[in-house]
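Re: that backbone. Tokens:
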């Protein structure tokens, strides 16, 4: 089994380090697979069809990936990694937790708007998981990093007195759930959702929901 790539882009042990050319070919195959899934659905994304999209033989894909399952795993991680890097870069540019929280929400929607294909493919893959274990594994891969990132912002904001008292973990899940709830509606019907307006509304909503009425007095979360 080849190595896995974690959502933050690190490789876990499992195979020899790939050459630059091999990594470039793997990325090309992953991107082609994303396009194929987004356009025709996961059920139609056979290795042969993906190979045709790239202009290579099916055996080349088999050289780089131990079958379709490993390719799908790497697609999921690639999609999440790309989004996480984009959001973290935007958040890290801001000073103060209220600004970081706004940047997180705004960057999430900005990335959606620029990468619709990614989210269409992701939703289709997510819907294909047929076992509880597979769904839990996806949840851990997709949502744990997001929740931890948000939770850190919220907890620090409480410590600095910017945010009121609440349970950071609970509110982190609520914020991410709100973002992804809009995303799902947009994936299913692009014209039914205005991403920019949704970003603005959620930014206002959670700015008001987190604001510390004591005005700078440190607060602590409840239920922790």
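Recovered sequence:
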């Amino acid at each position: 089994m080849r190595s896995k790539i974690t959502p933050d882009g690190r490789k876990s042990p499992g195979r020899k380090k790939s050459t630059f050319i091999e990594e470039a070919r793997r990325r090309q195959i992953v991107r082609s697979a994303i396009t194929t899934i987004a356009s025709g659905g996961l059920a139609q994304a056979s290795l042969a069809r993906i190979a045709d999209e790239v202009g290579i033989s099916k055996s080349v894909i088999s050289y780089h990936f131990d079958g379709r399952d490993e390719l799908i795993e790497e697609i999921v991680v690639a999609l999440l990694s790309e989004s996480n890097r984009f959001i973290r870069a935007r958040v890290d540019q801001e000073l103060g937790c209220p600004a970081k929280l706004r940047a997180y929400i705004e960057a999430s929607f900005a990335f959606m708007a620029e990468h619709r294909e990614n989210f269409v493919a992701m939703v289709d893959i997510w819907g294909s998981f047929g076992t509880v274990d597979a769904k839990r594994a996806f949840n851990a891969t997709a949502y744990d990093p997001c929740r931890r990132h948000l939770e850190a912002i919220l907890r620090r904001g409480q410590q600095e007195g910017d945010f009121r008292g609440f349970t950071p973990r609970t509110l982190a899940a609520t914020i991410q759930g709100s973002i992804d709830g809009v995303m799902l509606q947009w994936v299913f019907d692009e014209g039914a959702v205005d991403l920019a307006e949704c970003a603005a509304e959620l930014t206002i909503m959670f700015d008001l929901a987190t604001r510390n009425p004591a005005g700078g007095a440190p607060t602590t979360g409840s239920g922790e």
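DSSP finds ten helices and no strands in the chain. Residues 1-15 have pLDDT under 50 and may be disordered.
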